[in-house]
Specification:
Number of strands: 9
CATH class of the largest domain: Alpha Beta
CATH architecture of the largest domain: 3-Layer(aba) Sandwich
Strand order of the largest sheet: 1-4-3-2-5-6
Order of helices and strands: EHEHEHHEHHHEHEHHHEEE
Shape: globular
Largest sheet: 6 strands, parallel
Radius of gyration: 19 Å
Number of domains: 2
Helix content: 25-40%
CATH superfamily of the largest domain: HUPs
Strand content: 15-25%
Number of helices: 11
Length: 287
């Protein structure tokens, strides 16, 4: 079957239902488009011999905390569809805003606790928008498995908790972060960077690595780990750190003492572009 682009919920549901009648599993990669090799790695992991691979492309307005960020988000549907075709995708679901939100949205999904720190602290309403649109997409596609990148670690934790708490019949598959040669995590926002900003942005991964090295060497104090990473970020004049924190990887709460695996998470601005990244690190057993 060649790739089909569905612009309506009804068409997407009909195609998924037919795939199920054929005994195929439904594999789902939700995206906002501007696809790159990071998205491609999710699609590669999602392709299965008897699977029906669905990719959604929808720039979700209710997860943006700033109107200018929403307006500037890249929209490259034609190129994205061709990208999906080369990756063996069966169905691209690319609805309009009117199709997804035909009337003012009154029902929302919130995951409390996990959204108070990191990005949630600086982007009010963001994770409510993410949880709501993912719930809507799960209801439309009804996947057996959905694939999310580990780069957006807080989003991954929020979606996992939402699925668990609401008994959604979908398996969440975490996929490794894909990086450029200098370590910068691939992102649809990277294309906004000037050459100088792009060069500076590689300091984010170096900062995370420095902090992770402290944890693996036995550092127990999160403040010590945080300083090691921030020193590298603050040495780069084109970067403005928004946060650099050490949290529990499942609950996304700050840790007072590093005694088990932690998530080291960072957000930094390069000019008008906000970049995020994270690494997990585990202390030695005898620390």
């Amino acid at each position: 079957m060649s790739l089909v682009v569905a612009r309506t919920i009804a068409q997407a549901r009909a195609l998924v239902a037919e795939a199920r009648r054929q005994g195929r599993s439904i594999e789902f990669v939700p995206t906002m488009g501007a696809l790159h090799e990071g998205h491609g790695s999710l699609m590669d992991l999602a392709r299965r011999p008897q699977g029906f691979l669905v990719v959604s492309i929808f720039v979700n307005p209710i997860q943006f905390d700033r109107a200018d960020d929403y307006e500037r988000y890249p929209r490259t549907l034609e190129a994205d569809v061709e990208f999906c075709r080369r990756r063996g995708v069966d169905l691209v679901f690319a609805p309009s805003i009117e199709e997804m939100y035909p009337q003012p949205q009154r029902a929302f999904v919130e995951v409390t606790g996990l959204t108070e720190h990191l990005c949630g602290r600086f982007r009010p309403g963001h994770f409510r928008g993410v949880a709501t649109v993912v719930t809507k997409l799960f209801g439309i596609v009804q996947p057996d498995r959905a694939y999310f990148g580990e780069k957006d670690a807080q989003q991954l934790a929020v979606v996992r908790r939402m699925v668990r708490d609401l008994n959604m019949p979908v398996e969440i598959v975490a996929c490794p972060t894909v990086r450029e040669a200098d370590g910068l995590a691939m992102s649809s926002r990277n294309g906004r960077l000037s050459p100088a900003e792009r060069s500076a942005a590689s300091a984010i991964y170096r900062a995370l690595q420095a902090a992770a090295a402290q944890v693996r060497a036995g550092a127990r104090d999160p403040a010590v780990v945080r300083r090691a990473g921030l020193a590298l970020l603050q040495a780069e004049p084109l970067l403005r750190p928004e946060y650099f924190d050490i949290v529990d990887p499942e609950e996304i709460q700050p840790v007072l003492m590093i005694e088990s695996e932690v998530l080291i998470a960072c957000a930094a601005w390069a000019g008008t572009t906000r970049l995020i990244d994270s690494l997990r690190a585990t202390p030695p057993l005898n620390a």
